[in-house]
Amino acid sequence: MRKDALVSPFLFALCALLILGTPTAKAQQVANNSISTTPPASPLSMPALPDLTHRENFSAAMQIIVLLTVLSLAPAILLMMTAFTRIIIVLALLRQALGTTQLPPNQVLIGLAMFMTFLIMGPTWQRVNNDALQPYLNGTLDQKTSLANAIVPVRDFMETQIERAHNESDVDLFTDFAREPRAATWDGVGTLTLIPAFMLSELKTAFLLGFKVYLPFLIIDLVISTVLISMGMMMLPPALISLPFKILLFVLVDGWKLVTLSLLGSFGT
Question: Which structural domain, as residue segments, surrounds residue 134?
Fold first, then answer.
């Protein structure tokens, strides 16, 4: 006897039992639901969300999420509201003035600019820690009040730098564009208006400092070019000859120290 002859009746009987048993199971389930008087809990019901304004309701998982979010926004905050913009622009112009396009490397310049930023912003961040962060962690301030206290030292730093650079007109520029009345005092200037005004002021100041750094090296390039032309060596690139002299001059006058001192002094620290 073939095995197919035994398998086919077995499959037919199994299919018949499944077809006949499905309505019975459904009827039994309907009967059970009709007998039960308690309605089942909806699987889509959501639990009540805790009040996140209180520190005790802020779970560890949410704290990690907020910490990662702040870390992802840290580069933007560092660029917009600190001394980093001015420092990195001046250092980049210095490297271009020397003629060494790849030396020092970008990692070295950014690292130097970051540590100088930490040094300049140290008092401001200390105020933020004392007035906002520590009271919030201790539970004496709520989240909204802590954030309001944290922005005050940062605003003071930005306002001071705008006043030192005499770039108050940048604040009026963004205030007029926002169609807001010009404020008589800094308290009337919104933070969203103060931040771009501060960045524009920093760009102006950075390029002015960069021009002062660029000027001595430009004079060396002009002298070398004049000497080469007078000697009839017009095919020789002047940058190739002036590079050793610019490096020698920069080393003899202790250029890195002078540039660092000028940058730190430009912030009034």
Answer: 64-214
* CB neighbourhood size of 5 (10 A): 8
Q: Where are the extended beta strands (E) located within 10-159?
A: none
Is 253 within a domain?
A: no
- How many separate domains does the chain show? 1
pLDDT in tens, 96-112: 888 887 788 888 888 88
- The residue among 113 and 73 whose pLDDT is bigger is 113
Q: Copy the structure tokens of residue 251.
A: 């080393």
Asked, for residue 32, whether it belongs to a domain, the answer is: no
Q: pLDDT tens for residues 230-263?
A: 777 777 777 777 788 888 888 888 888 888 888 8
User: How many CA within 13 A on the CB side of residue 201?
Assistant: 30
Asked whether residue 30 is domain-assigned, the answer is no
CB 256 within 8 A of CB 210: no
* CA–CA separation, 117 and 35 (whole Å): 73
